[in-house]
Amino acid sequence: MKGLVYGGPGARSWTEIPDPAIRDPRDAIIRVDAVTICGTDLHILAGDVPEVKPGRVLGHEAVGTVVETGSGVGGLTTGDRVLASCISACGICRFCRDGAYGQCRGGGGWILGHLIDGVQSEFARIPFADLSTYKLPERVSNEAAVLLADILPTSYEVGVLNGRVRPGDTVVIVGAGPIGLAAVVTARLFSPAHIVVIDKAENRLQAAKMFGADTTVLAGTDDPLSAVRSLTADLGADVVIEAVGTPQTFELCTALVRPGGRVANVGVHGKPATLHLEDLWIRNLTITTGLVDTYSTPKLLDMLVAGQLDLGHMVTHRFGLGEFMRAYDVFADPARSGALKVVLAG
Ligand code: NAD
Ligand code: ZN
């Protein structure tokens, strides 16, 4: 079969690799039917994630059909159409029992395509398949479901739930990539009074408007601080969600929040941000951060089935699996291509 293989910083190839095999009784093998590329894959390709070694099959967002199950898999049978969660976790260690799947110490805690091979391939091994896959009802499309592998639970858990968005809140989201846009959709579930989205790219702000942002601010041209202050009687926002991952945008978030407000960091920071603790202290701010655990995936799937999540507009480009090299080029250059999520279908 073929897979998208990391070859070291800047190098990737769509190439022949061995078929995946069951290695543990709790594994399943899926045929990949729909798969996406994530900003995290670009971080890996840039060499920013040194624990990912050359030879690794990338990718952690897929929908597929079960073609084989290990003897310890109880809830799946061949032919089931499933969403594979981006996090593999044992389900029974002390962290998993708390829903902290990303911290699993029972042999999981892996992000697919990170320390184990991922899903950007024709077939893929999914460890702990009973816990790490979700059977899909017929009415949910592969394209909508694949957005629940990572970006929806990430924006919902690490952004909206950690930030405790409440009815009537003013919510600011800094960064309008797929994660920031998914945060607009999931923040809306809590009836905030106003959602402001800040990005430095005009086409991303246009997308934010389509997803329901009330106000957009073009960073670098407009002044985010005065825009947010004028909406909040000079106080600042109740909740600010960081969905970029730079020291500057994190510091902007702490400046935009009101006294007693909440900053929920979602961005992955390659460079450390500065914490001005004296300022955060005197203003009683709550700051949260974290890796997605995907404990919310079943709930998000229910909401998707019930028509409560409008994810239209998120997939901007579609390719066949054999077009992975070109799909990466398109995804990596959103200023030119206008790409949000690209989906490759088998
Ligand atoms: P993305 O690169 O597609 O989007 C980032 C957006 O930020 C872009 O639209 C860009 O124009 C904007 N931006 C960059 N610099 C800016 C600035 N100075 N001011 C305003 N806007 C600016 O990324 P994404 O896929 O949406 O992911 C967002 C972040 O979330 C990334 O850091 C990613 O690694 C992280 N992430 C975190 C988790 C987690 O578990 N916490 C999971 C997945 C992704
Ligand atoms: Zn991802």
UniProtKB/TrEMBL annotation:
SMART domains: PKS_ER
Cofactor(s) needed for function: Zn(2+)
Domain Enoyl reductase (ER) per the UniProt entry, residue ranges: 7-344
Alphabetic keyword roster: Metal-binding, Oxidoreductase, Zinc
Oxidoreductase listed as a keyword: yes
InterPro entries documented for this protein: ADH-like_C, ADH-like_N, ADH_Zn_CS, ER, GroES-like_sf, NAD(P)-bd_dom_sf
Keyword flag Transferase: no
Pfam families: ADH_N, ADH_zinc_N
Family to which this protein belongs: Belongs to the zinc-containing alcohol dehydrogenase family.
Protein name: Alcohol dehydrogenase
Phylogenetic lineage: Bacteria, Bacillati, Actinomycetota, Actinomycetes, Micromonosporales
